[in-house]
Amino acid sequence: MQTRTLGTTGPQVSALGLGCMGMSGMYGDADRAESIATIHAALDAGITLLDTGDFYGMGHNELLINEALRTAPAALREQALTSVKFGALRDPAGGWRGNDGRPEAVGNFLAYSLQRLGTDHIDIYRIARVDPAVPIEETVGAIAEAVQAGYVRHIGLSEAGPETIRRAAATAPIVDLQIEYSLLDRAIEDEILPVCGDLGIGITAYGVLSRGLISGHWSRDRKAAADDFRAYSPRFSGDNLDRNLALVDALREVADGKGVSVAQTAIAWVLAQNARQPAAIVPLVGARRRDRLAESLGALEVTLDADDLAAIEEAVPAGAAAGTRYPEEQMTHLDSEK
Ligand SMILES: NC(=O)c1ccc[n+]([C@@H]2O[C@H](COP(=O)([O-])OP(=O)(O)OC[C@H]3O[C@@H](n4cnc5c(N)ncnc54)[C@H](OP(=O)(O)O)[C@@H]3O)[C@@H](O)[C@H]2O)c1
Q1: Distance between Cα 285 and ligand 1 center (Å)
Q2: Which residue positions does the secretion signal occupy (predicted)?
């Protein structure tokens, strides 16, 4: 497995990370045994970075990772690095109730995550959404104290905009920004990628398959369950879905021409962006089954030359996506979109 260094202060991680969110209900039901087998298969293939959030299934995802690591061979368990998001407030019905980045909340979230993960430290810790009521210096400062105390190794950001990134980096070393980046989501190329490049901050890219929309496995006939994010995502709805699937058809022609799958082409495109970014870009693939994971890993073997990249650009031009990447209300919580 190729590796990359996130940020100027590390850590070294596998070129692909595994995002575990979909194993805890965000995309409808997931099979627990298959989820754990997928984490084991990822570690076995050399993936070292496991991404989670304490609010994915209200702790379910961290407990799942705990079980997967406990039941993995010691050598694989020891190579695993945990990247944990905190701050999102939930309610008993599963609703979303804003974000809490107060320093006293950081310590509280951290205490519970350490317990659920069954570990004495978290490798990368970040607030999922910038809390507009708390200066980022205070939130990052609280994580920096946890680094001093040994409970956290590195500090990351999530969906932060350029000004917040600069202020955070002036407070403490930031190793990565986790943000949506895919053929359908390229807004970060204008300002956020250059800022991160200048400051030596890596990118852990999520939604590289646009939540399955550009995986080649989504179709008009596939219905998302009511509790699946995709049931209320603007990109998966009505005419937007037709327009986005037409982009996938165009991308499939490029993929077919190379003898690889649509998902592999989409992931390889994100990997290829490393060539023009000084700090590492590491796609987090959201596989929750071993067959999907195996397909994603195949992207590491795909080389895209200038002609391939031009053909992909023609198939899916920047800004071609129909619909916003989150529903309207959730868009307002994205510091990166302000
Ligand atoms: N910081 C943030 O705000 C934020 C937000 C969202 C996610 N994340 C993190 O990023 C990770 C990845 O995000 P994501 O799950 O939205 O990304 P994604 O990789 O774009 O989408 C994953 C979904 O795509 C489908 N898929 C189809 N073919 C696949 C393949 N070959 N490999 C993997 N998935 C395939 C799967 O759905 P089916 O299984 O239904 O086919 C899977 O659940 C999450 O797990 C989470 O850790 C962070």
Answers
A1: 6
A2: none
At residue 51, the 3 state secondary structure works out as strand
Q: List domains and CATH numbers for the chain.
A: 3-337 (3.20.20.100)
Q: Which of 55, 155, 162 minimizes the C-alpha distance to 112?
A: 55
- Determine if ligand 1 sits within 6 Å of the CB of residue 158: yes
The SS3 assignment for 174 reads strand
* Ligand 1 in reach of 212 Cβ (< 6 A): yes
Query: Do 213 and 182 form a contact (C-beta atoms < 8 A)?
Result: no
pLDDT per residue over 146-165, tens digit each? 999 999 999 999 999 999 99
On the question of pLDDT at 15 being above 90, the answer is yes
List Cβ neighbours of 157 (8 Å cut-off, separation of 6 or more).
126, 127, 130, 164, 165, 168, 174, 176, 177, 178, 201
Q: Is the CB of 321 under 6 A from ligand 1?
A: no
First-residue to last-residue Cα distance in the chain: 37
Residues designated catalytic? 56
Longest dimension (CA), the chain: 54
- In this structure, of 33-37, 67-71, 149-153, 221-225, the range with the lowest mean pLDDT score is 221-225
Closest by Cα among 221, 236, 207, 287 to 43? 287
Closest ligand 1 atom number to CA of residue 158? 1
Which tokens hold the place of 130? 């910038």
Is residue 194 within 8 Å of residue 254, measured between CB atoms?
no
pLDDT for 227 beyond 90 = no
pLDDT classification of 107: cutoffs 50, 70, 90: very high
- DSSP 3-state percent helix, strand, coil across the chain (nearest 5): 45, 20, 35
Q: Is 109 in the pocket of ligand 1 (CB under 6 A)?
A: no
Ramachandran class of 216: left when φ > 0, alpha when ψ lies in -120 to 50, beta otherwise: left
DSSP-derived letter for residue 33 is: H
How far, in Å, CA of 313 to CA of 180, rounded?
Answer: 18
Question: Tokens 């939130």, residue?
Answer: 139
